[in-house]
Write a structure and sequence with these properties.
7-stranded mixed β-sheet; 11 strands; 127 residues; mainly beta
Length: 127
């Protein structure tokens, strides 16, 4: 079982940038489909971005396309979420997650497809 720890959250003004990191231990992150989700107060946990085991396939929710970039550094066993042009509506707790797939190009979009989760990191964007 892989353990995931997120970091990099914080308070930023609208238009600013943050880079979230998700450090994995226990297993090699390259064997998992990885994803980022977020949850605002009183709302469900929503999909943000996903990256395949190979790193060759990525996908994003429409609201972050062109602003967020998911990437992975298998040598560092870490997945990143670069967030630019942040908006107040991006405010949430951000979670990274790992899922199992037999296919190197597969990506996952729903929480039930992931079996390991980090504890989350708070991102607050002020207007």
């Amino acid at each position: 079982q892989v353990q995931l720890v997120e970091s990099g959250g914080g308070l930023v003004q609208a238009g600013g940038s943050l880079r979230l990191s998700c450090a994995a231990s226990g297993r090699t992150v390259s064997t998992y489909v990885m994803g980022w989700f977020r949850q605002a107060p009183g709302k469900e946990r929503d999909f943000v971005a996903t990256i395949s085991k190979s790193g060759g396939s990525t996908a994003y929710v429409d609201s972050v396309k062109g602003r967020f970039t998911i990437s992975r550094d298998n040598a560092k066993n870490t997945v990143y979420l670069q967030m630019n042009s942040l908006k107040p509506e991006d405010t949430a707790v951000y979670y990274c997650a790992a899922g199992v797939s037999a296919y190197s190009g597969r990506t996952f979009y729903t929480p039930t497809q992931y079996h390991s989760w980090g504890q989350g990191t708070q991102v607050t964007v002020s207007s």
